[in-house]
Q: What sequence folds into this?
């Protein structure tokens, strides 16, 4: 039997979401207005180039990146780093929702037909997602001395909530 108090051994993000997050962090650290090629992003993140390209195009379709064609083309953030939450990135690569099944049985379970565990489990899921929703790319770079493009004071946007006190990403 596994120790119920041992930390989870699975990663917080899927491999694709991890690659996407790393790529967006590379772009967030660069000077604004200068695109970076998919190959350069793959090299900077240590990810497979073909996989990186597919990931970047998916992020573009989701409105998180802009792509520019041509010899000096590449990818740019579609909006400022302080407006891109980790949840937005992860959601691009989330599995499609499954049929909700009851934790206590083999029947459908939702807010219209909840089991006794439904309310508690909904709160647990919301609590697990909260850090992803409230943490932005800018938050992850806030303590990174190599981030030249980061403004000295991250502006506050409507609905923007600073998460934590300086998580860093390496």
A:
């Amino acid at each position: 039997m596994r120790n119920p108090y041992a930390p989870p051994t699975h990663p917080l993000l899927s491999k694709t979401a991890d690659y996407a997050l790393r790529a967006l962090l590379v772009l967030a650290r660069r000077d604004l207005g200068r695109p970076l090629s998919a190959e350069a992003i793959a090299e900077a993140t240590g990810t497979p180039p073909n996989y990186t390209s597919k990931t970047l195009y998916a992020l573009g379709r989701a409105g998180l990146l802009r792509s520019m064609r041509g010899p000096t083309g590449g990818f740019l953030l579609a909006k400022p780093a302080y407006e891109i939450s980790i949840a937005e990135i992860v959601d691009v690569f989330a599995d499609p929702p499954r049929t909700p099944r009851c934790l206590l049985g083999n029947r459908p379970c939702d807010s219209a037909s909840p089991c006794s565990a439904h309310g508690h489990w909904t709160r647990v899921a919301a609590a697990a997602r909260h850090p992803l929703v409230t943490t932005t790319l800018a938050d992850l770079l806030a303590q990174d001395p190599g981030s030249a493009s980061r403004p000295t004071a991250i502006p506050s946007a409507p609905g923007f909530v600073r998460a934590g006190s300086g998580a860093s990403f390496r």
Q: What stands out?
A: Confidence is low (pLDDT under 50) at residues 147-170. Residues 15-96+137-141 form a domain with the Arc Repressor Mutant, subunit A fold (CATH 1.10.10.10). Residues 118-134 form the longest helix (17 residues). The CA atoms of residues 44 and 75 lie 14 Å apart.
